[in-house]
TrEMBL record:
Subunit structure as annotated in this protein's UniProt entry: Monomer.
MF terms (GO), sorted A to Z: 8-oxo-7,8-dihydroguanosine triphosphate pyrophosphatase activity; dATP diphosphatase activity; metal ion binding
One GO cellular component term noted in the UniProt record for this chain: cytoplasm
Magnesium keyword on record: yes
Reactions performed catalytically: O(6)-methyl-dGTP + H2O = O(6)-methyl-dGMP + diphosphate + H(+); 2-oxo-ATP + H2O = 2-oxo-AMP + diphosphate + H(+); N(6)-methyl-ATP + H2O = N(6)-methyl-AMP + diphosphate + H(+); 2-oxo-dATP + H2O = 2-oxo-dAMP + diphosphate + H(+)
Family to which the UniProt record says this protein belongs: Belongs to the Nudix hydrolase family.
Coiled coil spans: none
Species in which this protein is naturally found: Tichowtungia aerotolerans
Record protein name field: Oxidized purine nucleoside triphosphate hydrolase
């Protein structure tokens, strides 16, 4: 299935559920340079897999604590991302934002924290879908995205 219209997203059952947590302050985003695991070598937000019994928001906070040693305060839901890979992998992601946090962003074995101005995001070294929905998130607009990928190559998308 290469086209998003080939997929019945209402019946779609993703193999993984995960979150992303964006810290926004003074027209800057706190991103990570992912050091290992899925998306290694790319810039992204802290995040990861939903664990049994936890809410989406709890997952976003926990993953940010693990990857950056900070605790986001009052995270807000920003959007939903659904990724279908032609190799059969699939991810349902929920995106959160926060403007405040406790602690100091600290490098871990998984992530190097870096602040980027919203007008200077390193899209050339990010997932191909990011330039499509980041502007909506930064502007505070809710969004839902459906994407098909072949490895790291985006094949098709629909952004609502």
């Amino acid at each position: 299935m290469k086209k998003v219209t080939d997929i019945n997203w209402n019946a779609w059952d993703p193999k993984e559920k995960a979150t992303l947590m964006f810290i926004q302050q003074n027209n800057k985003l706190l991103l990570i340079e992912k050091k290992r695991g899925f998306g290694a070598g790319y810039y992204n937000a802290p995040g990861g897999r939903l664990e049994k019994g936890e809410t989406w928001q709890e997952c976003a906070i926990r993953e940010t604590q693990e990857e950056l040693c900070i605790t986001p305060l009052d995270p807000q839901h920003a959007g939903t991302l659904m990724f279908h890979f032609i190799d059969g992998h699939s991810i349902h992601g929920e995106v959160f934002t926060a403007t405040k946090f406790e602690g100091t962003p600290t490098e871990t074995d998984e992530a190097l924290p870096i602040w980027f101005h919203v007008d200077e995001l390193p899209y050339h070294n990010m997932w191909a879908d990011d330039p499509l929905w980041y502007p909506k998130m930064i502007a505070g607009e809710k969004f839902t995205g459906h994407f098909t990928f072949d490895g790291k190559t985006m094949l098709d998308y629909e952004l609502l």
